[in-house]
Amino acid sequence: MKFLLLLRVVAVFLSAFKVSLMSNKWEDENVLHRRKMIWVGVVLGLAALLLGGTVLGWQQDHSASQRQARVKPSKYREKVTRKDTAKTQAALFDEKLDRSVKTKAGQSFSEALTNDKFIGSALVIQHGKVIFNGGVGYADQASQRLNGPTTLFQIGSIQKAITAVAVMQLVEAGKLRLDDPVSKYLSGIQTGDQVTLRMMIDMRSGFALKKYQPAVMGDMDIIRWAIANMTYLPQQNYAYQPVNYLLLAGVIEKVAGRSYEQQVKNDIIERLKLKHTGFLPAMLTDSNRSLTYTGPVTNPYQTFIGEPELWYNRELGTGNMYTTTGDLYRLLRGIDSGKVITLSALKTLRNRDDGVYTAGIYNHQDFYSTHGVVAGQMASTAISHDGQNAIILLSNYNSHALNLHDLAVHLFQTLG
């Protein structure tokens, strides 16, 4: 634009110059020559002035463009750096869930576990940082193999929380509703038309088993046997009865069209990328398994407790899974953060915060806890709702002197 303006100005001056010459053609030749020089000087001066302004403007625009070009990559790099830093921190945190971590802040927790005669593996997270991840005592006393972050333990009834979430996944998929009567999916239950899936999740169905399953069976045979051997307590009253979750496992199989184990593996374990979590009997042949012991606190390894197939076969949906401390945190935190079901669905599922059992957990305002016992092994957790503080305890010592759930909650309350 400035260059075109320059051309127009020069054209005007040349035109004026021509007119001037024509109007003064009778003047002295020397005068005409001087007049020509003056006009040429004026035109060249204006041209230089305008050209200089054009060049200066171009230089300023070019410099501004260069500055912007320098600023944009800088801001981009800053964003990328922050993102990369967050990813790195998350990766470092996740890596610590699978290895030994002992810090000064975690020393008091290690000492407390030892003083309470705890044997097993423990994970302590405070303000989003792993301050202790390690073991106490032996996973295998005969070979002197110690408990640690990679040791496998059974989680017992903590599995009920997983079963409840698996039910809720089917609710979100539109395949069932919590207020459906159980008779819609399983036949032969006397009060099946009056008992909903929600009541079973909350242990308010009135269902109870009067004896233990006598032999190893397939999943649906286990369900049929349980229905045939149930007793019926008053409905609406809370009564902790594992048969509720065994029947829920049967509902899951009917609706999903595949085994309970396959449903949980595909839709929960694999989704959360859990590498150390699975179903028995796989744990029993794993080199990282923990063996179970019982005995007085003065001789905790006095008696080894073996596990017949029937023990875990009858725990369908209620207690036949295993994991590590790190994977158990990943599992529970994955559920809490909306990676398995939506947060609104989780809120519907865990609809109490007064510490009363619901959906496999004891939910409080600031945290929730879980507890399980099976085949002599014990598991207890206490985790804040944001996952920043957590206690995960897995034990292979069947001690009647230690209430593991109370210990987990007590240690959690000291995290601050």
Automatic annotation (TrEMBL):
Q: Which GO terms describe its cellular component?
A: membrane
Quote the Gene3D superfamilies the UniProt record gives: DD-peptidase/beta-lactamase superfamily
The superkingdom of the source organism is: Bacteria
**Keywords (A to Z) from UniProt:** Membrane, Transmembrane, Transmembrane helix
TM spans, by residue? Answer: 37-58
Q: Does the keyword Disulfide bond apply?
A: no
Q: Which residues form the Beta-lactamase-related domain?
A: 121-387
Q: Which Pfam families match?
A: Beta-lactamase
List locations, semicolon-separated.
Membrane
Q: How is this protein named in the record?
A: Beta-lactamase
Q: What is the lineage of its organism?
A: Bacteria, Bacillati, Bacillota, Bacilli, Lactobacillales
